[in-house]
From TrEMBL:
<dbReference type="GO" id="GO:0005524">
    <property type="term" value="F:ATP binding"/>
</dbReference>
<keyword id="KW-0547">Nucleotide-binding</keyword>
<keyword id="KW-0456">Lyase</keyword>
<feature type="domain" description="ABC transporter">
    <location>
        <begin position="2"/>
        <end position="230"/>
    </location>
</feature>
<dbReference type="InterPro" id="IPR027417">
    <property type="entry name" value="P-loop_NTPase"/>
</dbReference>
<keyword id="KW-1003">Cell membrane</keyword>
<keyword id="KW-0029">Amino-acid transport</keyword>
<dbReference type="GO" id="GO:0016829">
    <property type="term" value="F:lyase activity"/>
</dbReference>
<dbReference type="InterPro" id="IPR003439">
    <property type="entry name" value="ABC_transporter-like_ATP-bd"/>
</dbReference>
<dbReference type="InterPro" id="IPR003593">
    <property type="entry name" value="AAA+_ATPase"/>
</dbReference>
<keyword id="KW-1278">Translocase</keyword>
<keyword id="KW-0472">Membrane</keyword>
<keyword id="KW-0813">Transport</keyword>
<dbReference type="GO" id="GO:0016887">
    <property type="term" value="F:ATP hydrolysis activity"/>
</dbReference>
<dbReference type="InterPro" id="IPR050086">
    <property type="entry name" value="MetN_ABC_transporter-like"/>
</dbReference>
<protein>
    <submittedName>
        <fullName>Phosphonate C-P lyase system protein PhnL</fullName>
    </submittedName>
</protein>
<dbReference type="GO" id="GO:0006865">
    <property type="term" value="P:amino acid transport"/>
</dbReference>
Length: 230
């Protein structure tokens, strides 16, 4: 499903004329339906890998070979913007630690938008049912559904982010610290959905600090130190 070869990315800090290494010579592969976890200290380069796959970071070197349902084997490091927009809408999912939403978009609309991308506008009733089911699963009170998420707590924003990503049932799901600010009850709900997606064949790549959460979930685990896998 995904094969990464020699992936490297650094960042230039213009104010101090200094280059910082994000990740270097990363190489690994994920088979369809597998869940691969990456662990490591903060600043070790874990999130850089996910952002290169999602293409918010443009890799400097290396290849990210993804077996797309529409495009076939595609190097995401060289993919066009049009191709990436399609993949983000229909094949890839990304759970960030931070919620990125339009200013006047309600919590309900954020999740519904993802559901409509999956089921299509012609089946809006089904998308609405799935949206309500997902919001309830993550204990987002109905009084919050029509509010703008800028008023939410950090945990509520993260739960909303997870709901919007998982409702799409993507072929490849990227998880960036999906339990970072959640209580134990919410962590269990995330784990339940991850187990469900895995049973359905979703391929997943996640980065974690919570090693206990990963226990029994991951097929393979890699550890990063100073931008490199060890």
């Amino acid at each position: 499903m995904l094969q990464i070869e020699g992936l490297s990315k650094s960042f230039l800090l213009h104010r101090v004329s200094r280059r910082v290494q994000g990740c270097q010579d990363i190489a690994f592969s994920i088979e369809p339906g597998q869940f691969v976890g990456i662990t490591g200290r903060s600043g070790s380069g874990k999130s850089t890998i996910l952002r290169c796959i999602w293409r918010t970071n443009l890799p400097e070197r290396g290849r990210i070979l993804y077996d797309s349902a529409r495009f076939g084997m595609l190097d995401l490091a060289q993919a066009t913007q049009r191709q990436m927009l399609y993949l983000r809408a229909y094949e890839l999912g990304y759970v960030s630690q931070f919620l990125n939403a339009l200013p006047r978009q309600t919590a309900y609309d954020i999740v519904l938008k993802s559901a409509l991308e999956t089921h299509g506008t012609a089946d809006r009733p089904r998308a609405e049912r799935e949206t309500e089911r997902m919001l309830r699963h993550f204990d987002l009170d109905e009084n919050l559904w029509e509010l703008y998420p800028r008023t939410f707590s950090g945990g509520e924003k993260l739960r909303l982010n997870i709901a919007a990503a998982m409702i799409k049932h993507p072929r490849l799901l990227l998880l960036d610290e999906p339990t970072a600010s959640l209580d134990n009850a919410s962590k269990l709900k995330v784990r339940t959905l991850i187990e469900q997606l895995k049973a359905e064949g979703t391929t997943m790549l996640g980065i974690f600090h919570d090693l206990e959460f990963m226990e029994g979930l991951c097929d393979h685990e890699f550890n990063m130190q100073e931008g490199m896998m060890v």
